[in-house]
Design brief:
195 residues, Arc Repressor Mutant, subunit A, Tetracycline Repressor, domain 2, 9 helices, 75% helix, 0% strand
């Protein structure tokens, strides 16, 4: 069965942006990699920027939907936050090139940064809601949920990127254990250190 042209374009764009970065990638490169005419890409996307933002939006949506589909109402806030940590780590391991694109290019042009932040915020709202629930149930310390969500997302993302760019084997279980330890040693009230 042949892949649809859109899925070919999507994968080619991920490959090219990951390899060359946004600034050096061209629509010609993407068309050649997808084995489609450049006009086919321009039929769907007005510019390289629009294609790039589409990729990021789709990737963040895939991450968010994947996590949301596994969160169950009867889970405790700790179980939910553990699941979020594990799923984000697994996602970056499965979609390595997307991880590289998302994190390496997030510091690009100011307009692109604003779009990135909007897209990532939709995922971080999910984390915030779990932190708020944990605070309400007195399972977590009283913290600023927005700070925790951005810190948690950033900590996991940068740790994953460090491994991926260092071309080391991506051991999701080991990374999860480290991130879990860092996350919950500071959030859980039980066994808390006297600060």
């Amino acid at each position: 069965m042949r892949k649809s042209k859109m899925s070919l374009i999507f994968q080619a764009a991920i490959d090219v942006f990951s390899e060359k970065g946004f600034d050096k990638a061209t629509m010609d490169d993407i068309a050649a990699r997808a084995n489609v005419a450049k006009g086919t890409i321009y039929y769907h996307f007005k510019s390289k920027e629009e294609l790039f933002l589409f990729l990021v939006e789709e990737g963040v949506e895939l991450l968010r939907d994947g996590v949301e589909s596994k969160l169950l109402p009867d889970m405790t806030p700790t179980e939910k936050l553990e699941l979020i940590v594990r799923e984000q780590i697994n996602f970056f391991g499965q979609y390595r090139d997307f991880c590289v694109i998302l994190l390496r290019e997030s510091w690009g042009a100011e307009e692109r940064q604003l779009e990135f932040r909007k897209m990532i915020r939709s995922y971080m709202y999910l984390i915030e809601a779990v932190v708020q629930e944990g605070i309400a149930k007195e399972e977590f310390h009283f913290v600023n949920p927005e700070n925790v969500s951005s810190g948690l997302f950033g900590m996991i993302s940068i740790a994953a990127l460090h491994i991926l760019l260092g071309h080391k084997p991506y051991d999701g279980d080991a990374l999860f254990q480290d991130m879990r330890r860092m996350t919950f040693s500071g959030l859980l009230k039980q066994g808390e250190d006297k600060l």
